[in-house]
Specification:
Layout: H1 6-9, E1 35-41, E2 49-54, E3 60-65, E4 77-83, E5 93-98, E6 101-109, E7 112-120, E8 127-136, E9 149-153, H2 158-164, E10 170-175, E11 181-185, E12 190-195, E13 200-203, E14 206-211, E15 219-225, E16 232-233, E17 239-243, E18 254-258, E19 282-283, E20 289-295, E21 307-312, E22 317-326, E23 329-339, E24 343-348, E25 354-358, E26 372-378, H3 394-401, H4 406-419, H5 422-433, H6 439-453, H7 458-464, H8 471-478, H9 491-496, H10 502-515, H11 518-526, H12 553-565, H13 568-573, H14 580-587, H15 593-605, H16 609-622, E27 624-626, E28 648-650, H17 654-683, H18 706-710, H19 721-730, H20 735-744, H21 773-781, E29 792-798, E30 802-811, E31 815-819, E32 825-829, E33 833-842, H22 854-865
Antiparallel strand pairs: 1-26, 2-3, 3-4, 4-5, 6-7, 7-8, 8-9, 9-12, 10-11, 11-14, 12-13, 14-15, 16-17, 17-18, 18-19, 20-21, 21-22, 22-23, 24-25, 25-26, 27-28, 29-30, 29-33, 30-31, 31-32
InterPro entries: 6-blade_b-propeller_TolB-like (IPR011042), ARM-like (IPR011989), Cyt_c-like_dom (IPR009056), Cyt_c-like_dom_sf (IPR036909), DUF7133 (IPR055557), Haem-bd_dom_put (IPR013427), Quinoprot_gluc/sorb_DH_b-prop (IPR011041)
Organism: Pedobacter soli
Domain Cytochrome c: 733-868
């Protein structure tokens, strides 16, 4: 994808309604008070800008992507280096830095340029996955010195990139003050990604991965997001995202705070098991989150500073999210900030110049004529030279590390780390320990020192844990690199569990997880209190996956640690203690015989009926497990979200669990059977004795003859699309009449308007918050211009010489549900499918509005534009 999600945009098409900024040199209305926006580079230089990054010294690196989200042809992408020699806000020089396809993220540090991009086979011309690579420009000529050096290979799913394109692939990258590169992994996930050390890793679904700048120590940071596109990282290493939505389930854009080791639940825990996840901080409605940045620059106005800035492609808006501390996490309030047509990315330099890239209707396969870059600065801004850090003395670097600029601190930190000498190490420690310095400066000192001292820094970092102001960060730095844990003591983390600060408590749990000392850690982790909010959603009710719940964070992290430590013995031993709730929560993920036998033994001797019920719930959860992921299955626009597994299989202990559950059900008789029936359905155990015949209520669906409708010729059908769009701009239309037309023209056969309705094709209940009237009109008149994700025609051939064509309404590991253009629904068993092919045409045929007058079409468009649920 070009840093946006088709699933969010539904029927989104190119932004004809937006005039190119370059036809009107200045648009003051775009600039919030106190800021000035100038046009930096136009489509003649930067068409289809998918991503950008700015060097601290001000050079702008733009990822041009003429493949777009759905294109399949290689050789259409490049990284450009743009310069503003006289600092007037307009590019006056550029070079082709490197050729890469589908650039998705860029970081510039010194003479290194890190790029995330799609790779193609020279032999076949087909995509082979995505790589994180680094280029170098040591001679400073604006061009990469040589070929890219891979840091991580295959960090997206080759199968789905080939079939679909990059719209849900791996995307934005950003470096934190801790020196890690944080990578936003879309819900394609990846299989057998390999880093420079040879380490392999697989991720089913999306999340955040991180890696060192040399391409080693790759690890999962968080898991369970749908289509995260970029991260905003604050000076204290808080990570924020604005995630994409899903048109199949009505799940909207979410704003999340990512806490290391956290599980965010998409898709299998997202509806029915939300008690087990870290929820998002807000449900923001329709949209499509793209680039992200935490603004922390001294010359920016206070009202726009020290905030996550998050781009939303679908809403053509850069948002500010004002975050407020809430225990170990935050709450938030979002505000519209800068409007820019299909904004894709943003970054800031060391002089405070913010650059934004606009896709501006470049389409789903890129365009040579659309897209541009703008510069945003405070109105009273004046250029201040940012130094070449390689030429600075250690004293000057020390001053820069003490600055109140995130860009400056990171540049100074990375240069000190690169020098890797005693003097650099000493000054970093001195800054970390200086209680007179601001906290963000001391944090920068701690992480710089940790990177320089490595295993030799343990003693000094332990000493810093005695300083309450920086305890949290010293603890985090102690276990930040797993390769340097040998001499790290456990005591500071055990003490941290007793700390009054929930943030210290949280990093202590994470540290115990990473230390791996199960015998010392398990018992104290099990003592973590579980709040009353730890409650499973009621049957048939979607859980609160986007409602802040700071109370769940600590027990959630403790469970993730216990599972990672494989602390089965301690969990089983705690079943009949005051720590039973946390122990049973953690045991849900322990697929081993010791856990199963321990649960059964405790059940047999338990006297507390509530406890016995919870043990049965835990055993039912363990009856199946997720099959090992081999990259041949998984992704879809409407993934099965029932949970608790996506593609479940029985395992060695399943017969033991089944036998025990049947015995207990028999003992409880007819009156107790419903409990086991509900367990069977909730956990999809498929135990025949607990199954009930599913009665599907007959639903009268409208049968629409779309061929007849589209062949009727009215005013619209006799006019050019340009004339129709001009007329629509002048006619308001009647939304009441528009609803009637929505029904009569067949729209209702494939589109739902209410979240309570069963989802069919792309959800129309919030289309007005995503598209303007002109965009809606064009999507009706030219449905093939951009096929909404999940609405492409699919041809399936199945056993029995059967053929089906429609769009996928629902898909699980066991079945595919297709809806055809007449509204008929077919359920096809997965095992019966012989072939499946996605066609390159929309299920929505052209001509459905041909019989309408201009006024009628205007009424339909107005009605849809008012759908903003």
């Amino acid at each position: 994808m070009i840093k946006f999600s088709l699933s969010l945009i539904y029927l989104s098409i190119i932004f004809l309604g937006f005039k190119n900024l370059f036809s009107e040199p200045e648009k003051p209305r775009l600039a919030p008070p106190g800021l000035t926006i100038t046009n930096f580079a136009g489509p003649d230089i930067t068409p289809s800008p998918a991503c950008l990054a700015v060097a601290p010294t001000g050079e702008v690196f733009v990822g041009v992507d003429m493949i777009g989200s759905l294109g399949k042809d290689a050789g259409k992408g490049r990284i450009l280096k743009l310069v503003d020699k006289n600092n007037d806000g307009k590019m006056d020089g550029h070079t082709d830095f490197a050729d890469v396809d589908n650039p998705r993220g860029i970081i510039v540090q010194g003479d290194q340029v890190f790029v995330l991009h799609t790779t193609f086979s020279k032999e076949t011309g087909k995509a082979t996955g995505m790589n994180l690579v680094v280029f170098e420009d040591k001679d400073g000529d604006g061009k990469a010195d040589g070929p890219e050096k891979p840091l991580i290979e295959h960090i997206s799913n080759e199968k789905y990139i080939r079939e679909r394109g990059t719209d849900h692939a791996t995307n934005g990258i950003r470096m934190g003050i801790d020196g890690w590169i944080y990578i936003s992994v879309g819900d394609f996930g990846f299989h057998d990604a390999i880093d420079r050390s040879g380490k392999k890793m697989t991720m089913l679904g999306g999340g955040i991965v991180r890696v060192r700048p040399d391409g080693t120590e790759m690890e999962v940071f968080t898991h369970g997001t749908r289509n995260v596109y970029d991260v905003a990282i604050d000076p204290y290493m808080n990570v924020f995202t604005r995630e994409n939505t899903n048109d199949g389930g009505g799940w909207n854009v979410r704003f999340s705070h990512h806490i290391q080791s956290g599980e965010y639940g998409y898709p299998v825990l997202f509806q029915n098991f939300t008690d087990e996840i870290i929820p998002a901080l807000a449900d923001l409605g329709g949209g499509s989150g793209t680039g992200a940045l935490f603004m922390n620059e001294p010359n920016w106005p206070t009202q726009y500073n020290n905030v996550p800035m998050m781009a939303d492609w679908g809403r053509s808006m850069l948002y500010i999210h004002r975050v407020t501390a809430d225990g170990p996490t935050f709450t938030q309030k979002d505000e519209e900030f800068i409007k820019l047509p299909q904004i894709t990315d943003l970054d800031v330099d060391g002089s405070g110049r913010l650059y934004l890239s606009a896709w501006d209707g470049a389409g789903y396969s890129g365009s040579p004529d659309k897209g541009y870059i703008v510069r945003v600065v405070p109105t009273d801004w004046s250029y201040k030279v940012f130094p070449d850090v390689k030429k600075l003395s250690v004293k000057k670097l020390t001053d820069l590390l003490k600055s109140n600029s995130s860009v400056g601190r990171l540049a100074a930190s990375q240069e000190l780390v690169a020098r890797n000498n005693k003097q650099a190490t000493e000054v970093a420690l001195k800054i970390a320990a200086d209680q007179a310095l601001p906290l963000d400066v001391r944090v920068a000192g701690i992480y710089t020192y940790a990177q320089l001292a490595k295993e030799n820094g343990t003693t000094e970092l332990v000493a810093l844990t005695k300083d309450n102001a920086v305890k949290e960060f010293a603890l985090k730095a102690l276990t930040d690199r797993k390769i340097y844990l040998a001499n790290v003591p456990i005591e500071p983390f055990l003490q941290g569990l007793q700390d009054a600060s929930p943030r210290v408590h949280a990093v202590s749990i994470i540290g115990l997880n990473r230390l791996g000392k199960v015998d010392e850690a398990a018992k104290v982790l099990l003592a973590t209190k579980v709040p009353a909010s730890f409650t499973a959603p009621a049957k048939g009710v979607e859980g609160p996956h986007a409602t802040p719940n700071s109370a769940i964070i600590l027990p959630h992290l403790a469970v993730r640690a216990l599972v990672s430590l494989q602390a089965t013995d301690a969990m089983v031993a705690a079943i009949k203690t005051e720590n039973a709730d946390l122990a049973l929560w953690a045991l849900r993920y322990m697929h081993n015989a010791k856990a199963v036998n321990g649960l059964i033994d405790n059940y047999k001797t338990a006297q507390d009926e509530k406890l016995k019920k919870q043990i049965l719930i835990t055993l039912a959860r363990l009856y199946k497990e997720e099959i090992a992921y081999d990259a041949s299955w998984w992704w879809g626009t409407r993934p099965d979200s029932h949970g608790p597994y996506f593609k479940a299989v029985t395992w060695s202990e399943s017969p033991v669990i089944e036998k025990f559950l049947k015995e207990e059900a028999l003992k409880q008789g007819a009156n107790g059977k419903q409990f086991f029936v509900d367990l069977n359905e909730r956990n999809r155990m498929d135990i025949a004795e607990f199954a009930v015949e599913e009665k599907v209520a007959a639903v009268e669906e409208p049968k629409i003859d779309l061929e007849k409708i589209k062949n009727q010729k009215g005013q619209v059908g006799k006019s050019s699309i340009e004339d129709v769009l001009l007329a629509i701009n002048k006619l308001q239309g009647n939304p009441v009449k528009g609803r009637t037309i929505f029904n009569n023209q067949g729209c209702i056969a494939c589109h739902s308007l209410n979240k309570t309705d069963k989802m069919k094709g792309p959800f129309m209940g919030q289309i007005g918050s995503i598209m303007n009237r002109e965009q809606i009109a064009e999507s009706i008149l030219k449905p093939n211009a951009s096929i909404s994700q999940g609405f492409a025609s699919v041809m399936i051939t199945a056993k029995g010489d059967k053929t089906y064509m429609g769009f996928v309404q629902e898909e699980t590991a066991a079945k595919v549900v297709l809806r055809n253009i007449a509204g008929e629904v077919f359920t096809i068993k997965a095992g019966d499918i012989l072939s499946r092919k996605e066609l390159e045409t929309s299920m929505m045929p052209e001509g459905l509005a041909n019989s309408l007058s201009y006024e009628e079409l205007a009424s339909l468009v107005t009605f849809l534009s008012e759908q903003k649920k």
